[in-house]
Structures are given as C-alpha cells and as structure tokens.
Amino acid sequence: MGHTSHKITVCTSCRHKGTDCRPGYELIAKLRAAIAAAGDSLSEEFEISGVACMAGCDRPCTMAYHGTRKATYLFGDIDAATDIDDLVAFARLYGVLGDGWCSSVDRPGTLRRSTLARVPAAIIALEDSDQRAS
Fold it and tell me: Is the residue at 100 inside a domain?
C-alpha cells in the first residue's frame, strides 16, 4: 500500500457481553472491502488496521478516524452488519475536512449518536495556545 494520510483503527478485543465474539475483525474486513469498492480515492487515502484495545469496552465495537493535523474521532457501538455505509460516508467527509472538525449533524446516520470523543489535533492545540500566549 502506498502513502496514506488517514487511518481508521478498529478495536480487535471488543466483545459483546457474555460472548466470545470479537466483532472488530469482521468490521475490519467489511470496511476494507467497502472502501476498496467505493470507486474513488478512498482506498488510497485510508489505512485500516486493528489494535488490541481502545478502552471502549462497554461500547463494542469501538473505532477511530485520525489523520495528520486533524481532529480524531472515537466511535462506539459500531455494528459491521449495519454501519458500513455510514462509515464509508464519514471517511469521504473526513478526508476532505481540512482540520477534521465537523459537528454531530454533519456525521452520517448512526455516527451522530455513537461518537464517544472528538480530540483536537495536537498541532492545533499547540497553535491555539501559542496565539493565546502572545
């Protein structure tokens, strides 16, 4: 894979209470296939990978969108069976947002209510504190 400017990270240890099912692996496979099938540059812009734990255990499956100099979004309660279209639509939106910042009403479908956190880019936080200091 060539250079990507965005990452989607999916928790691979999330599991639904009382089961051994770990939906992160299925989510990664379905999301990779959907982004590859999108027919635009999304597959070149986004790297999709798993990570052992994202500390969102009560909201499986958790995942994050992040990019250089962009706000990071952490989502929970993601379902590989029903949320793929919303995840691809958000990738399209996130890819064109200069600083990654958008309001909840701009996020597609279920992502409006499954946002666990929006973390400003570190570079933006540093620039803002520099401006306040001067």
Answer: yes
Provide the whole-model pTM.
Answer: 0.85
Q: Is 1 inside any structural domain? A: no
CA distances from 96 to 5, 67, 106 (A): 11, 11, 13
pLDDT tens profile 3-22: 568 999 999 998 877 777 78
Which of 122, 91, 117 lies closest to 104 in space, CA to CA? Answer: 117
Range with the poorest average pLDDT among 18-22, 60-64, 96-100: 18-22
Beta bridge partners of 119: 72
The CATH number that applies at residue 93 is 3.40.30.10
